[in-house]
Amino acid sequence: MKGPRHSDSPSQKRLMRLGGLIRKEAHQIVRDPSSIAIAFVLPVILLLLFGYGVSLDAEHVPIAIVVEQPGRETAGFVAGFQHSPYFAPEIMHTIQRAEQALMHREVDGIVWLRSNFAQELLGPGPATIGLIVNGVNANQARIIEGYVKGVWSRWLKHTALDQGMTPGPTVAVEQRIWFNAEMRSRNFLVPGLIAIIMTLIGALLTAMVVAREWERGTMEALMVTPVRIQEILLGKIIPYFILGMGGMAVSVAMAVWVFEVPFRGSYGVLFVTAALFLLTALAMGLLISVVAKNQFVAGQIAIIATFLPAFILSGFLFDIGSMPKAVQMVTYIIAARYFVNILQSLFLAGTVWTVVIYNALALGIMCLFFLFLVRKRMKKRLE
Questions:
Q1: Domain boundaries in the chain?
Q2: Does domain 61-162 match CATH 3.40.50.300?
Q3: What mean pLDDT do residues 223-243 have?
Q4: Which pTM does this prediction carry?
Q5: SS3 for 130?
């Protein structure tokens, strides 16, 4: 005779149910590759588009140089623009022609050397040049102004040395650039871009997929089973967390090897903080799916509520300190703000613990907050 069979303990039953939910979700991912596309294909496309398409550097700027009376003095000054990688100069002989070119957007600025330039340069007074810049794009205009001043100061130094004079003032400025010595805007943009992409990926992975289950009725069928809400949530989060971390690994690899952004921090710290941020994004997506229960609506809400605020208010592209105080206060509820700070620190400066701990703590609080909201909104009853 066989003895009585001992039933499994409650904890074993919970683990079995959770394992079954994870296997079910894994089969769903394999059958419907849209989740894999969101996790791996979408970050590659967005990184390539933004990494190569977005730049804060101004190179080969078309500029008109008006030389009313050419001479030895003006030739050296013009050569400074011709040998600069920032300008694509075009020599013109009248200011009227240059202004016409600026009006027709053929050039973005005008450097004007008047007919008395050489006389002023050799005389006791200061020599002046005229600079006219297209101010439609204020940022571009400030960059061009700075570049022209750089060419002007270098030319003055060389001219003074050629004449046997002491160049410049008695105080010499020794310039040092920390963290991004190459002054490549891509080194600044790509780490922040990873945070923006992971925001969109994390929200879409759970918002779209879970909303699809609500549409097909499989979520209602799951609700009448003995599984608990916590097990359902874990069964949804764990598979997509693994997918999201895979997408994160691809993004970091592209940043380091494709865009050649230096990484000076700890990969272990990157993994932990990325996990916190991804859990926050997945929880936001779950909350959207619980509220919307429709793929189209969930997708629109995910873009409007997560991607756009992260893109505009995270400090990825626009400096938070330059925003109005009211908008700066809003940025504190944007999870991407904290992850952007962590990524830019890890990539460019290293593991700065004061930056990492503060922002990781904020991410942990936001993660718990959104998971709490999801647990409160998701109930085992059909409404």
A1: 18-54+184-377, 61-162
A2: no
A3: 83
A4: 0.78
A5: strand
